[in-house]
Amino acid sequence: MQWIISLYITMFPVILAGVFNMLFLKIPFLKSRCRPIDGGKNWTDGKRIFGDSKSVLGFILMTVLAGLLEVFWGFLLQGLGQNKRSLLYLYFENAPSFNFLIGMLFGFLYMLFELPNSFIKRRLSVSAAEQGDGRRGLKLFFFILDQIDSMFGIMLCLGILVHLTPAQILYAIFLGGLTHVLVNCLLILFRVRKYL
């Protein structure tokens, strides 16, 4: 149980960055400046590469937000004398420069590991809102993938940094997926999101 609490304490800045990223990108001024990563271009099959939902601004914002929130979280844990609660600080010094870089790395990996999922969905003509258009197998597959895709990169990186076992990494990805669902449910409740 202690390990799970430490995992959540370690990952809290990234979770928060994901929420803030979504909120900020709903601000009309920022939303109007979102340009898709794929530049609106199509793949060889004539379909979009990633789609409009993956934007350059979203990618940059998530990366920077995660870095800044990691620095803030580091200061907070330091002030409360709780450094040992974070898995990172069992192996690395709680320093602003490290926190900013590791936060940015986590934010970057969060966004990067969402791209293959988007690419596959465009190939199969699966919309983000409909998740498989009634095709039950695809609907379930992409629902699960949407919850854990960004976790793969982050947890692999964290696993290397803090020496997690493969079983711990898989369990962390599973917990990340459950957390993603719960956070999305809250965002739907507060009308920030329209669907899971």
From TrEMBL:
Note whether Lipoprotein occurs among the keywords. Answer: no
Signal peptide positions are none
Protein name, as recorded: Putative integral membrane protein
- Read off the InterPro entries from this record: CarS
Q: Does this entry carry the keyword Membrane?
A: yes
TM ranges? 6-25, 56-76, 96-113, 140-163, 169-190
Q: Which Pfam families match?
A: CarS-like
